[in-house]
């Protein structure tokens, strides 16, 4: 089966894109073992644990990202520059296991995947 990379590059809760991406990711994980997950740009906000989406009447799907380990998805990366630009620390990421990498390294990793899907 093809290797698949999922890129989360939009902020959560402003649209259904992030939730749909997570649903697609978990569905694919049941069928494939070669999956990578990348958080870039505004997408790094998916990793922040102290969000209150109920205030804007949105569903809290962010905690579902903790299931990645349960689904044996180990290749989870976040752009270091995106974190720094937005002032997000490792403590704010709420225990989701991600590997911070510079953008150039993320691009190298992405080049190894057959299919890339962005949300």
TrEMBL record:
Q: What organism, scientifically named, is this protein from? A: Rosenbergiella nectarea
Q: What is this protein called?
A: tRNA 2-thiouridine synthesizing protein C
Superkingdom, taxonomy of origin: Bacteria
What NCBIfam families does the record point to? PRK00211.1, sulf_tusC_dsrF
| Family to which the UniProt record says this protein belongs | Belongs to the DsrF/TusC family.
> Per its UniProt record, what InterPro entries does this chain match?
DsrEFH-like, Sulphur_relay_DsrE/F-like, Sulphur_relay_TusC/DsrF
Organism taxonomic ancestry: Bacteria, Pseudomonadati, Pseudomonadota, Gammaproteobacteria, Enterobacterales
- Entries under Pfam families matching the protein: DsrE
């Amino acid at each position: 089966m093809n290797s698949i990379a999922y890129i989360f590059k939009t902020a959560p809760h402003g649209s259904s894109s992030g939730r749909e991406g997570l649903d697609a990711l978990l569905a694919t994980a049941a069928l494939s073992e070669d999956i990578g997950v990348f958080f870039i740009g505004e997408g790094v906000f998916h990793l922040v644990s102290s969000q209150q989406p109920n205030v804007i009447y949105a569903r809290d799907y962010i905690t579902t990202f903790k299931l990645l380990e349960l689904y044996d998805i180990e290749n989870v990366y976040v752009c270091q520059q995106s974190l720094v630009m937005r002032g997000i620390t490792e403590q704010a990421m709420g225990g989701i296991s991600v590997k911070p990498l510079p953008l150039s390294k993320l691009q190298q990793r992405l080049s190894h995947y057959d299919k890339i899907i962005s949300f």
